[in-house]
Amino acid sequence: MNVLFVASECAPFIKTGGLADVIGAVPKALAAQGASVKVLIPAYPALASLVATGQSVMDFDDLFGGPARIVAVRAKGLDLLLLEAAHLFDRPGNIYLGPNALDWPDNDMRFAGLSFAGAQIALKGLGDWRPDVVNCHDWQAGLLPVYLRQSGEPAPQVVMTIHNIAFQGLCDATRLTALGLDTDLFTPDGIEYFGKISFLKAGIALSDKITTVSPTYAAELLTPEFGMGLDGLLRARQSDLSGILNGIDLDVWSPEADEALVATYSARSLKGKARNRAEVEARFGLTPGDGPLFCLISRLTAQKGLDMLLDCLPLIVEQGATLAVLGTGEPDLERAFVAASRDYAGSVGTIIGYDEEMSHLMQGGSDAILIPSRFEPCGLTQLYGLRYGTLPVVARTGGLADTVIDANEAALLAECATGVQFAPVNATMFGHAIARTCALYRQPKVWAAMMRRAMRHPVGWDLSATAYLNVYQSISEH
Ligand code: ADP
Ligand code: GLC
């Protein structure tokens, strides 16, 4: 089974969120099960040194306004195809945003370029490697099946994976020609979304199968509340839609061997965790105490329900707990958390920024991780939390609902709890969940048993990689 992945991010090379973690991990798990996977991503400036070590495998004289080429390189266990197109991707700073913190005005062209290049690889192959299936990830790869269809040539089957339906890649209808799109596709069952072009809708409408990143989110997507205007189309395609849970890369996320920790530890010997906690307290200016140390590692956006966390800060302090916050995003939320660490000095500490190493240390040193998302397609930080014995306290939505077993009375008796869930998703219920977590923490034996259980809970990619392969096989035989 030859599979071409097309995406805008891939860890550890370029990352703004969980998409990168997934793209950096699944191909290795698929390869372990016999598939040959190549990953096409843009050659942003951060990848320049990798490009220099690679080999040119395809050229474009004019890819939406300039020359481009594809460079193949093997790195960190992945077969990467880097799309070098200076006019589209050679820009400083965030990969999606310009210096004014707004989307680059030509993001449509940039990711149409990625999709078009992917379509050419799908149609022509590279040497004797030809994909049986193309797996497009999120809106940035959404136009790929459109370009395949417009070519009129025999093409591989396409799977569209939705990591987050909130990002749809919308642009003005006047861009149809510039993007090389046939006007007859611009209909409500094609690529039109309320008068605009939607890259994600195009991907959903024209692909052979659709996956998303958890079973609960797959069900939620069919509702107006979560489907964000695409629920009707998804209901029409329900028989082609499935939810496959994300896993984590255990080579990168394991407390037994994590170099970002000041002390490693394992389910057998939890001792090292205390040293990591002391380090987190020092780095975030927190006063050591008897209560649990909570952490938050997140994009600071409305999706993540952080207004509820701000409402719960007095309760956290009252309970004798502390909180370390690492995040970047919406300026209002950044300001609110910075202010909180002044108002609750010693109890709340905030670092605004994106810091991969710090995120590992926090998973290693915290007792529990807070994830009050209003919606969460899968979420990875709760999976890292499980692996590090940092018990997840989560909203019961999307993948959070599917991965954490709530410590209710029945689960405690059956000895299967791995964290705390709350629903309905509001500040009052989140407050109850925080209080419940603090009460569990005051019972050291119960808490340690939950930690060990969480750390042993299977969170690797094996099962889900098999599920992806099953989807690929179901269409590639056609
Ligand atoms: P999303 O993709 O919606 O942001 P996920 O939970 O799937 O949510 O993935 C988020 C990823 O980004 C995780 O790997 C998390 O550790 C990482 N992350 C988020 N914010 C930061 C930050 N400020 N610094 C370092 N890592 C972060
Ligand atoms: C998106 C979602 C997140 C998911 C990640 C990887 O960014 O917001 O829930 O874990 O994609 O699939």
How would you characterize the overall build of this protein?
- It is a single chain.
- By secondary structure, this protein is an alpha/beta fold.
- The model has no long low-confidence stretch (mean pLDDT 97).
- The strands form 3 sheets. The protein has a 9-stranded mixed beta sheet with strand order 3-4-5-2-1-6-7-11-12. A 6-stranded parallel beta sheet has the order 15-14-13-16-17-18, with helices on both faces. Strands 8-10-9 form a 3-stranded antiparallel beta sheet.
- It has 19 helices and 18 strands.
- The two termini are 14 Å apart.
- The protein has helices at residues 18-32, 48-52, 86-89, 107-124, 144-151, 199-206, 215-220, 224-227, 231-236, 272-284, 306-318, 331-343, 356-365, 381-387, 398-403, 409-413, 427-441, 444-456, 462-476, and strands at residues 2-6, 36-42, 55-60, 68-75, 78-84, 133-137, 157-162, 170-172, 192-193, 196-198, 209-212, 241-243, 293-300, 322-329, 348-352, 368-371, 391-395, 420-422.
- Helix 11 (306-318) crosses helix 17.
- It is globular and about 65 Å long.
- The longest helix is centred in the first third of the chain and has 18 residues, at 107-124.
- Helices cover 38% and strands 19% of the residues.
- The protein has 2 domains: 2-247 and 462-476, 3-Layer(aba) Sandwich (Rossmann fold), CATH 3.40.50; 272-456, Rossmann fold (3-Layer(aba) Sandwich), CATH 3.40.50.2000.
- Adenosine-5'-diphosphate is lined by residues 17-19, 21, 297-299, 326-328, 354-356, 359, 378-381.
